Amino acid sequence: MKTNTIFNIKTLAIFSFIWLFASCTNLDEVVLDEVLGEDTSNPAGALAAAYDRLGDGTFVDHGGVFSLQEYTTDEAILPTRGSDWGDGGKWRDMHEFTWKSDNAIVVDNWNKLTNGITRSLTAIQSVEESSIPEKKLFLAEAKGLLAYYLYTTLDLYGQAPYRDPMNPNAPLQILKADTQIDQLIKDVEALVPDLAEMGTQQTHHGRFTKEAAYGFLAQMYLNRAVFKDRLNASSSFNFTEAAVTGTGTDMDRVIYYTSLLINSGKYSLESDYFKNFARDNEKGKELIFAISQKIDYIRNGSNSFAYVCMERNQRTSAANRGTNAACTTPEFFATWDGNHDDPRFQQKYQYGDGTWFMNDGTDISVPATDIVPKSANLPWFHFNRGIQYGLQYGPILLSSGSLEMINGRIKVSPLVMEKSTTTRMDFTPSLTFKNPAQAVFAQNEINQGARIFKYEFDPEGGNGNSNVDIPLFRLGGIYTMRAEAYFRKGNTGQAMEDLNKLRTSRKRESLYGGVAGKALTSIDQTVLYNEIGFELYWELYRRPQMIRFGKFDLPGTAKSASEPYRRVFPIPQSTIDVTKEFKQNQGYN
């Protein structure tokens, strides 16, 4: 986590050590003690362990929740590329909708999320039994984290385990999404008075604050209708149901909570959209609740969301490369037709001497003056951001282990695929699978697929590590939630106003005159759906969005039309075998 946080995670709980909270009365970070993770008598350590589960692969790795929320949609696909990424078919299962209860991704994410539930319950118990001055605050945060892990588990699996943390003899309860969503909403609303406002009591966007609760409540109300009627065959969800508390409908509560954030004055939209996902985004103006990451000797943040799309011969330095795994689909790429000039689609990089990396065959060299942080003076090459497609260019790694140089600058050359050296690196938006139902490329086809370079590749700590904070709730997404709520209430004018706020607040790079995005002149459901995708692609929101809009079951690239039961994942068979209280979800028996 960042050095300005109230606490740092030193390593995994149970398996390692934890840095504890600094005193809430001391603005300087102080390490009070070190304890083993299983020592739950220290409430700060127990709460730190609950936070740690967010960033330990769960929400920051492409094999974590991302796999379930994105690889099952039109935004992302991880095909088998020749001899790479077969892995027993676990990745293809996600996009081909062939997963079963023993799929490794399904099982691993269940274990991560239920471990988050357990850690949160442990933190609640530890804080409740303490007499620390921060008891009320820490307890509210622990309960907020519990609700977040429970919600995510219920969203993905339809069921979640719970046990009363204050009763050692309490029986295991199996919560169900359709009945528990209302209780979760009431639970989080009840926490708000005890939570800190962001920026007070040493809080920041890595803590569960009042503002995080507002974003979370808006999310729950937006998806409440789906939770209550998930298998509705026609996707005719009742978004006009009376709200759990307060006045009006679910959509009125979405508008209420999103407006609290939008009107708070604490956040503002970045004119440079990609600053939200940069290695120095810890002071990001849009971040409401995020996973704070830091490269250090303790816990190195994850570079997964950037690394997973970059090709192995795309090198930010002589010590870094990509892995040629994921890409987007032709369907999602096509939603951008007529919008390639949107500032969120793509952005070219400019070096300090004014050189732009055009990536179009005209580049000869770029300056070698940018140096990889904490490296042995390694030159840093910057790839462009956003959705990258077509022929690719960049530096070549020589047999000497250095990047090819020309006149003291990094030479830019046409790139080929590392594992198919006669195949030009051409990220084709189309995907030509021999068997349309299976996401498998021949070795000479491994170049295919437009790539998502949304998160900045951080070369500081190796291919896998990063300082980029991962947003869970940010202001741009809050605007999309309010726009959707307005639209579902029939207020298309205000929905379009929110979408245009997003469009026109973003500006293109100075190469294109710094012009703002173009405003919409009309809106319908397709426009709304596409605009949400433009703002939130690659941010773990697509699957719930597709379900709400009735698109998740439709056929697509390497996917046949699917049954409604696939809107949730199966409970791992290994869990059912040892925990008889769980019954398998419909369709997976």
UniProtKB/TrEMBL annotation:
<keyword id="KW-0998">Cell outer membrane</keyword>
<feature type="domain" description="RagB/SusD">
    <location>
        <begin position="317"/>
        <end position="588"/>
    </location>
</feature>
<dbReference type="Pfam" id="PF14322">
    <property type="entry name" value="SusD-like_3"/>
</dbReference>
<feature type="signal peptide">
    <location>
        <begin position="1"/>
        <end position="22"/>
    </location>
</feature>
<comment type="similarity">
    <text>Belongs to the SusD family.</text>
</comment>
<dbReference type="InterPro" id="IPR033985">
    <property type="entry name" value="SusD-like_N"/>
</dbReference>
<keyword id="KW-0732">Signal</keyword>
<dbReference type="InterPro" id="IPR011990">
    <property type="entry name" value="TPR-like_helical_dom_sf"/>
</dbReference>
<feature type="domain" description="SusD-like N-terminal">
    <location>
        <begin position="95"/>
        <end position="222"/>
    </location>
</feature>
<protein>
    <submittedName>
        <fullName>RagB/SusD family nutrient uptake outer membrane protein</fullName>
    </submittedName>
</protein>
<dbReference type="Pfam" id="PF07980">
    <property type="entry name" value="SusD_RagB"/>
</dbReference>
<keyword id="KW-0472">Membrane</keyword>
<dbReference type="InterPro" id="IPR012944">
    <property type="entry name" value="SusD_RagB_dom"/>
</dbReference>
